[in-house]
Design a protein that fits this description.
This protein is an all-alpha fold and about 100 residues long. The chain contains four helices and no strands. Helix 1 packs across helix 4.
Length: about 100
């Protein structure tokens, strides 16, 4: 029993959500409130939610990819991998910037 096609479709369509939470929504809030210090705390919480979702999407994407590869049931593996990369982009950027400033 492989990854159901409906689950894969939902995963592919919701993969941009971490990017929305880490980049788009905080930017809109900052622009709407004219970069006010009041918006700092909500933006940090929203970004943390986005990074957490990104990590969860990485795990789910790896699981769906492994299931699709092992069972070869006609699921588009490239679409799953692309959705995983899109969803993991915020976590990758955060990890790279964190490593740059802590290692050096």
């Amino acid at each position: 029993m492989g990854a159901p096609k409906q689950l894969v479709r939902i995963f592919i369509w919701t993969s941009p959500v971490p990017m929305l939470f880490t980049v788009v929504i905080p930017a809109i809030i900052n622009l709407a409130l004219d970069f006010s210090p009041i918006a700092r705390a909500p933006n940090i919480v929203i970004t943390q939610v986005g990074l957490t979702l990104s990590g969860l999407f990485i795990i789910v994407g790896l699981y769906l990819t492994a299931r699709a590869v092992l069972n070869e049931q006609g699921v588009n593996i490239f679409a799953i991998i692309l959705a995983t990369v899109i969803a993991s982009f915020p976590a990758m950027v955060f990890l790279l910037s964190f490593l740059m400033f802590t290692v050096s």
